[in-house]
Design brief:
mainly alpha, 0% strand, 376 residues
């Protein structure tokens, strides 16, 4: 009897294969799979549907169907079944966006916003080339142009920062805080992990001090207390003092987020950088920081979103941001009505949501694009 060849081809055609499960198709199949798969899912689906039926129709009626869209005063928004007073938002829209910035000069704010978008869009889209040139434009060229346009220095008609307000102030405080806190937070995180005692101690003191006080206190100190320690002939603009306080406060939180990413990098990556004869800064720039920052993208964006919402606290020092200018207009006797405060707050919340949701979605996009994990 001849030995069987162990390498002989064995056909699998006769091996019975279990048929694939029949997948439910269509809308009914999707509903059964996702909403009514088990008795518990069915009960939860019914409860959620009842809650939505109870909340959504009155909300839609107030926001749209019973809302007042046009009008010249409070009389248009009075009545028993009157919803949101969007006529108030339409009448005050200019103040909500620009504050008391002169109407004839608001083109400068619009031009500044256009120049910002023109720089942000190319650098945010990965496929667009010339990233270095875009970064130089956003970090060097644009701030100079924006400062000249908004303030009027040195050739245009000057506009004091005390006349700024609304969304303009919100964006200025948020953008300056984000741009300054990110690199400063990286330096503080590296300093806290440094082997140099002086550098590490100074970084720890800075981080713990700014994290240990509320932002309201920081703004109050920067606006009221700081001038007391300066010479009589030296003064800082109120908005500039707020910008400095917000940037330093946010950089302390940013430093801790980035330090978490640095600690997550395996020790072998540091050893690899040393083995390649890279200097400390070369290793950080080329090997360590790119990996660390990728790991903490959610934390970084979370800090940015928190900073954007915290800009409303500048109202405590007399700077009227978007929320502050909306609240200020509640006292306008021409528009006092029961629906006016709720309408203004809903409008402000919608603006905040647009920016915060946009940052959140872009961070999710970057996480997915930069994900190098091995998926099965």
């Amino acid at each position: 009897m001849e030995n069987a060849n162990p390498f002989a081809y064995v056909s699998t055609e006769t091996i019975p294969q279990s048929p694939p499960p029949t997948a439910a198709k269509g809308v009914a199949g999707w509903l059964k799979t996702n909403l009514f798969a088990t008795p518990r899912d069915t009960v939860l689906t019914i409860i959620v549907a009842l809650i939505l039926l109870w909340i959504v129709p009155p909300m839609l009626n107030w926001l749209f169907f019973d809302a007042v869209w046009t009008g010249d005063g409070r009389e248009a928004c009075l009545g028993e079944h009157v919803g949101a007073c969007w006529a108030f938002v339409e009448a005050k829209f200019g103040q909500f966006m620009y504050g008391r910035y002169p109407a004839e000069l608001r083109w400068r704010v619009d031009l500044t916003g256009f120049l910002l978008i023109a720089g942000l869009v190319p650098i945010a889209i990965p496929s667009v080339p010339y990233k270095r040139e875009n970064a130089i434009y956003l970090l060097v060229v644009f701030p100079i142009i924006a400062f000249m346009l908004l303030t009027g220095w040195p050739f245009l008609e000057p506009v004091e920062t005390s006349r700024w307000g609304g969304l303009l102030v919100t964006l200025v405080v948020a953008i300056v805080g984000i741009v300054v806190s990110f690199p400063l937070g990286i330096l503080l995180a590296l300093g806290r992990r440094s082997n140099l005692p002086i550098v590490k101690t100074m970084s720890v003191i800075f981080i713990e001090f700014w994290r240990g006080v509320p932002l309201i206190t920081v703004l109050f100190m920067s606006s009221v207390m700081l001038p007391l320690f300066l010479p009589a002939d030296v003064s800082f603009d109120k908005l500039l003092r707020a910008l400095i306080g917000v940037a330093l406060f946010s950089s302390a939180y940013m430093a801790e987020v980035i330090r978490g990413g640095l600690q997550a990098i395996p020790k072998g990556q540091y050893e690899a950088a040393n083995a390649m004869a890279l200097t400390y800064w070369q290793g950080m720039r080329l090997i360590i920081l790119p990996q660390a920052l990728k790991l903490v993208i959610p934390g970084i964006v979370n800090t940015f979103i928190g900073l954007f919402k915290d800009t409303s606290l500048v109202l405590i020092i007399g700077i009227f941001d978007l929320l502050g200018i909306v609240q200020q207009n509640f006292t306008d006797t021409n528009w006092i009505s029961p629906a006016t405060p709720a309408t203004g707050l809903v409008f402000a919340a919608f603006i905040y949501f647009i920016f915060c949701f946009g940052m959140s979605r872009y961070s999710a996009f970057m996480e997915e694009r930069l994900d190098t994990g091995h998926k099965r």
